[in-house]
Structure formats: C-alpha cells, structure tokens
Amino acid sequence: MGHKYACSLAVIFAAATVAGAFSVDPPSPKGGEAALFSFKPSPFLSYEITHDSKTYKPYPAVGGKREIFLPIAIEASGETSILVAKKLLGIKIAASKVPFIITARQIPVIRLSPTSERMRDSKPALSDERARLLKSLGIRSPAKFAQGPFLSPLDGRQGEDFGVKREGARYSYYHKGVDISTRAGVPVAAANAGAVALASENLNVTGKTVVIDHGQGLVSCYYHLDKILVSEGEKVAKGQNIGLVGSTGWSTGPHLHFGAYLQGEAIDPLWLIEFTSSTYLKPR
Questions:
Q1: Are the C-beta atoms of residues 10 and 93 closer than 8 Å to each other?
Q2: Burial of 24 (0-12, 13-18, 19+ CB in 10 A)
Q3: Which of 284, 151, 150, 154 is nearest to 215 (CA)?
C-alpha cells in the first residue's frame, strides 16, 4: 500500500524540476578543488548528483539542509554538466542536466632527476600497500567529525605544488598534496578533528603515514613521518599532535606531505583550509 501511494505521488510530481532547489559555492570551481551544493530542507524530498560517471548522495547539514561536496579532478576543465536527480520518498521523480563550468588549473611539469628515479626504484610501490592506503583515502563515514575550519598541520616553508605533474623516464604522476619543509622531529598537528583511519609504519612510497577521517567523505593525510603518535581507530582533536616530521618513503629530505581527499578524489589542501575558513563547516 505504501509503495503504491509513493508511486502515485511520483506521477503527480513527475513534471517537477530541480530548478531553484540548490545553491552552489563556488559556481565555477577549479580542477583539484570542490563545489558545495546545498539543498533546501524538505521532509520528503532528497537529491543526488551524478558527475563524471560517479553518483554522490547528500549528507545532513546545518538548519535541516542537505549537502553534497563534489570533488573536481585535478586535470578537469571546461564546460560540462551535472545530472541532478530529485527523489520523493526514495523514488526518482525528476532529473535535470545542469550546466557546470570547471576552471582550468595551471599544471606545471617538473622533470624527475636520475637520483629521484633511482630512489623510487629502490622503494617500489607495492599493490597491497597501495590498496590499504586507497581504502583509507576513500572512506565515507556518514557522520561529520570535523569542527570548524581546517588548519595547516605545521609552520614551515610551504610549497605551492599541489597538482604539479612529475615526469621521468619511468614515472609520471600528479603530486596530490603540498610539501611543507622544516627540520626533522617537528610536531605535526591534525588539521581537524576526526578518527585515525590509517597509522602505518612501513609504506614504501609514503613512509610512516597517518590518514584521518573527518567524516562525510573528507579525509586528510600526512606522509613521510619520522614517528607516529596515534593509533588506528583513535579519536583525535583538531590541533592534536599526531606525529613528527621525517623523511621516510619516497623522500629526499625532512618534510611533511600534507594532502586532502574528498570522496576518494585528491583536492588541494590549501584551498580546503581557505574554503572552510569562509564557507564550509561554518555555522550559517
């Protein structure tokens, strides 16, 4: 009976559109950033977004709203569209393609030196290690653990190197974080509150590694540590020391690789700090 009633309602609302159902900030994100879709509160309606063959479901937000924080791939750019589906009691009643413009990111290319390539050869990426790391970077806890804006995990010489393409004779990849240079042993702080999803002592590429789950598909990562001060499953507060700067894994000197992932996609952590200071996670 309930299903038939829902179907009848679906027919009544079949002509409904998604126009005016949400706001988006920023309206034209850059590759390697994200767009926050905020949907008006409704006790019976829900929405989902499909972009680049991936579907994203909303999470509850302040004031009864529901939000989808949509990650944008580093290399994405130009005019595209998203498919916004409207659901009534879980049944799709309307779907509209909405134009969406992605601003191109400037992507410098850096050649890897023979020394850097030999260092990588000496510590090959292992499939089981990669699987563990990717699993933690793609975690999607339904609750939101982060509290307020994200912070930089330490003071130091901060490179503007997110999205740089590193190429060599045998290696080619995007740098999916920022490197912060400082002396070995400097404490590293959690960029926000969360739960430790990974605390590994021996990953060949990222060295001693910590990944923190901030909830709703948002995580931060801390690579090349000298020492890890937390354990998997532990709840951490924003600003809590989680490790010490080192030079483990694919590293040629003491520094912290600081990264952020949203729904499994790398986003610029410096942009995340700036955006969360003005919009996301702030009361509104």
A1: yes
A2: middle
A3: 150
Tokens of 71: 């990650």
CB 84 within 8 A of CB 22: yes
Q: Contact, 166 vs 236, CB < 8 A? A: no
CB neighbourhood size of 99 (10 A): 8
φ and ψ at 134, to 5 degrees?
-65, -35
Cα distances (Å, whole numbers) of residue 168 to 110, 123, 147, 173? 9, 16, 40, 9
- pTM for this prediction: 0.89
Q: How confident is the model at residue 15 (pLDDT cuts 50, 70, 90)?
A: very low
Position 189: which residue type? Answer: A
- Tokens read off for 218: 């948002």
Percent of the chain's residues with pLDDT above 90: 67
Question: Token digits for 98?
Answer: 């909405």
Q: Residue type for 100, please?
A: F
- Please tell me the distance from the alpha carbon of residue 184 to that of residue 254, in angstroms, as a whole number: 5
Q: Which residues share a beta bridge with 98?
A: 82
Taking a C-beta distance cutoff of 8 angstroms, is the pair 93, 16 a contact?
A: yes
Distance CA 84, CA 94 (A): 8
For 45-91, the pLDDT digits (tens) are: 889 999 999 999 999 888 888 899 999 999 999 999 999 999 988 88
Write the single-letter amino acid at 212.
I
Looking at the DSSP bridge assignments, the partners of residue 91 are: 88
Q: Which two tokens stand for residue 42?
A: 């409704």
For the chain, domains (ranges, CATH) are 2-102 (2.60.40), 109-278 (2.70.70.10)
In the chain, helix, strand, coil percent, each to 5? 15, 40, 40
